[in-house]
Amino acid sequence: MIRRTTALLALLLASPLVTAGERLPAVSYDTRGASAASLEALKRQVDAGFWLETGDALVVVAPPAVHARIGRRAKVDREHGLLSGDELFLLPMGCEVERHTIPNPIAVVGRHALVRMPPMLARQIADARAVQPDSVLAREHRPAPGAKRAPDPVIQSVVDRVDPARWFADLETLAGWNRSSYGSGTGGGGIDLARDWLVAQFEALGMSTTTPQVAVGASRPNNVIAVRPGTDLAGEWVLVGAHYDSRNPTNSSAGVANTPGAEDNASGCAGVVEMATVFAAVPTRRTLVFACYAGEEQGLLGSIAQAQAQALAASGDLSRIKLAVIMDMIGYSGDQDFDVLLESSGTPTQLAVLEQFAALATDYAPGTRAVIDTNPCCSDHMPWINGGIPALLTIENDWSQYVHYHQTSDLPQNITNAQAMGGRILRLNAAGIAVRAEVLAAAQFSDGFEPQGAAGDATTAAAQAAGDR
Ligand SMILES: [Zn+2]
Known about the structure:
By secondary structure, this protein is an alpha/beta fold. The protein has helices at 2-14, 36-44, 64-71, 119-122, 153-159, 164-175, 190-204, 262-280, 303-315, 348-364, 382-386, 418-436, 454-468, and strands at residues 24-30, 50-53, 57-61, 75-83, 88-92, 107-109, 112-116, 129-130, 135-136, 139-140, 208-210, 224-228, 233-243, 286-293, 321-327, 339-343, 369-373, 391-396. The chain has 13 helices and 18 strands.
């Protein structure tokens, strides 16, 4: 499938477009930061042709007169020439379809590319999805003026514990090892050293930790699962996860000694460690499960999280998970527009998660622009979404512009604006975990917090077992 898609895209580059629909001028207008009212006003100008909302822009395919009107109200981002609606498709841009094989997309929509492609060709690509005229492909969270709520002092006190400098130091530590899953067990493979370091971090925080082995080709890297028991709802879990393996451009066992993966995904894994550090001293009613996954880069949909989800489903424990928060690439921003992508499916349950996190970004991570996408793909959130568990991916919205993605140059110093961007996503996630895991009153915080009573002990064993399966 991977090779076939790539070959077809190469064919696309070489072949003239032949489609039936009427071609009209297509222009992307920058709608970042616009109010909901002004965005709707722009859409009303499109009385011929159609519009597509992408989260960053409004793509308008319409006669010149329409563009003349819109151009007076909005800044042109890019012009795309003549397009018709039936030649527009969304293609996933995650791990299985390298962004480099998708030339010059019309727009990046979450983790998908909006591309122009002959319908005959698109029909041969299983992942290609047609787009409907006048549709929202992804959207910016646009709170009404004055919608920012007074922060809850308890949530705020949790958020204030986030330390972006500490997180970045952990990121640098992890990026110091070549963490290819193919390097496990081959004599000092970096991923095994990273595993040992992760275990030490969690254990230093007083958390019990397991390291179930997973199969990646001939290698047997480990997941690292740590548990911090809840109080009276300890049988219900909030999972905080990220993959800690990294990969090279060819995703092969060759070149495993050159895979620093600072942004993808030391950033997310260090984020899991930071959340564990924050919540080690902050009791919550629900149990927190911290998961660092190996083998993500070799699985089409995060195979290792998939394995954990399937094992939990088989044991009947899957429904214990009340929320899965996944971090994959959280530290890069190409500019001072600090935009986070919140991604899940569009079911009412998942939409509620996305809306809640977007509102928390407004309240607890000031200066963050949240983009909501309900067409998820390509990371460790997928197995939880597919299992019907409330779950979301938090990722910087500029990820597709990070030129060091899957390159040997994915180094800490190349992550532009790391602490400003990563700090915002960490504050947002600290708030989301505090709310969803039901943080106790601030008076009960203590840096030596230990769970009291049998409830915590009984469910520790179950949560522990979740890692072993
Ligand atoms: Zn990743």
